């Protein structure tokens, strides 16, 4: 069982990735963003997830620097992720986008760089660029986001390096069983974005009942469900109370029956775009 916020899963290339991190999707540049990242680091988070399209890499970088200064930890103790956006999917374009992200973040390298969406006919060349950055030691691990099984199968026909991570929308109403089983079989770590379904699950009666049994919040129950399913997760919050609460999931465990109850809420329901029907 994971015991604390610094516990990690080992990716197939040997890199250690924290099970729980903080995401910053839709958090605008500004003091709230900087404070959230710094606060997360101060409270023990070691994984921060952003993306070029979020438009907030500079603030994330500032928060990282302030968090390091406040805690005295080293950059090497953090796991920082960003993603290349659809408009930059191409060999040279992806390499250039990586440099831009590093510059905005103020970092010398990323721990994980992902292809954000599987744009048909473009992600293969982008993957070649990620492989080159990885071979050069410019990034610790590479992966994809929002890839379904058929995207992964297609990519693996040309890939020299297998993706280490696949970050997908994942929550009790979208359990992604097929993708999860395929990633497990291939040794690709599944990671959840929007694990709380953008707050839409927080008043669900089944989840509330389970939360009451454990003296926990619904958010904590969902995040614990992620972890017990072997899924890395990156809940978003800018409020210190929530940042701390989201990390307090290592002192209880859900029963097999409770895990099955939560699994049973699946409806294949998305809050984000369908990767097969996204108007890029």
CATH homologous superfamily, by name? Answer: NADP-dependent oxidoreductase domain
Shape: globular
Mean pLDDT: 96
CATH class descriptor:
Alpha Beta
Binding site for substrate: 116
GO molecular function, one term: oxidoreductase activity
Pfam family, one: Aldo_ket_red
Site (Lowers pKa of active site Tyr): 83
Summarize the structure.
The protein has 280 residues and is an alpha/beta fold. It has helices spanning 31-42, 57-71, 91-105, 123-135, 149-156, 177-186, 205-214, 218-228, 240-247, 256-263, and strands at residues 8-10, 16-18, 22-23, 47-49, 79-84, 110-115, 139-145, 165-169, 189-193, 232-233. It has a single domain (8-202, 227-248), classed as Alpha-Beta Barrel (TIM Barrel), CATH 3.20.20.100.
